[in-house]
Description:
By secondary structure, this protein is mainly α. The chain has helices at residues 2-21, 28-46, 51-66, 74-101, 114-128, 131-141, 144-149, 154-178, 180-183, 188-203, 207-229. Helix 4 (74-101) runs parallel beside helix 8 (154-178). The protein is globular and about 65 Å long. The termini are far apart.
Amino acid sequence: MRDMAGGMAMDAPVASMPDMLRVQAWTPVDAVLMFLMWVVMMVGMMVPSAAPMTLLYASVARQARAQGSPLAPTAVFVAGYLLMWAVFSAFATAAQWGLERAALVSPAMVATSPVLGAGLLVMAGIYQLTPFKGACLRHCRSPVHLLAERWREGARGALRMGLEHGAYCLGCCWALMALLFVGGVMNLLWVATIALFVLVEKLVPHGAASGRVAGLGMVGIGAAMLALTA
């Protein structure tokens, strides 16, 4: 009896192992819910850092109404900004699906591969140092140039300006958003840390310099992780 019980105890984990490792296929409902999760998360992370541009547009709109030349509501501008991040959310959802299918990300949305996590850190760190990142960050830190140089009338113009501002912010922050897979997409502390970093980089004096320093740190940590996994 003891041998039989021991054999059953030994066999149970082996039998359940495939169930533990199996990645459950997404249904269309799962995909939609995951997309909505990304949209809500991007809104929560990015809207605070877009506040200066939003308030600037709202101020211009109020002055225009006072002068008898009403502009499109601020909500239209914000809708364009959020639409750009909704597009990003669609790509993020597709990336998550692909990584899960490749067993590189767990159902809890955390990278299961140390190489993937280290690679994302190195990639994000290097991107922090590129001229393209710098150009996008300069726009986000001084959004008045968009209103001064690319002003467009009407609701369509406001929507387009919101899209353009969102595109600059996306160019500034997409690599940082990829780091969500390193610490966990559902890790609220990690999400808040990245959101705070974005806010500091865009709004605080010398934020651009701190972003470059952080980029060097990301490269160093990622390279160290890769060395440990070699």
